Amino acid sequence: xxKIGQRNTLPVVKEVDFxxxxxxxxxxxxxxxxKRYVPKGTQLDDELDVFIYFDSEDDVIATTEExxxxxxxxxxxxxxxxxxxxxxxxxxxxxxLLVPFSEQRIKMQEGREYLVFLYLDxxxxxxxxxxxxxxxxxxxxxxxxxxxxxxxxVAESTDLGFKCAVNGQHWGLLxxxxxxxxxxxxxxxxxxxxxxxxxxxxxxxLQKAGKGKVDDLSDKILTALDKKGGFLPxxxxxxxxxxxxxxxxxxxxxxxxxxxxYKQRKIRIENDGIYLVK
Length: 278
What we know:
five-stranded antiparallel β-sheet; CATH 2.40.50.140; 4 helices; alpha+beta
């Protein structure tokens, strides 16, 4: 079954001067892949990985280009035009993505970037964007486990922290105390389920909980020391930014980890940095 707004693997069924036609099944028939996108050496019956969408004439068409997002995903996109229908955002394809006025939480302005969710509109069957995320998230009960790794998209900044989309299906909260590094709207990153609350809400973390977090960082520090000849110019007095740039972790976790390595006599901590004990 063809998935509009997503990548599909389809066989070549016909060659023409202006491209090739791919088998779109009974629903869509033959789908054109324009000549400029046809890989060199393509022959009949070859299977091609293509993205399926609607062109400027509202015909189903294929491309080998990679859009900035697919249906069911979030993306931070720039508004390139507005008119009486809505806003049009650049998503990396010749035809811009429409965000109707009815799907805008705030009126979009040309030149600004917005985090949007891509979906198929049931009424028109077209691919559109929306900033009304509550329509798409928390539609099913969460079944995550504490400590499970998940994909996050930062969607909003709040007084408590950052509201994130979890695996594109649920809302979760990343408390400011749990953050490190630079976070911004639209940033995609890996995180962990910190807590599943009784009210159904999800607390998030950017690091594994407890011993697993420290063990992973211990391995990273020892490996880095070995590669750098047994010395790194960083200590528990270093700035959070310096520690994050080296190990993508918070200063608190770094301090606990090198403290444990020191007690295990695997490193020495001096004023100028840490040393590998051989």
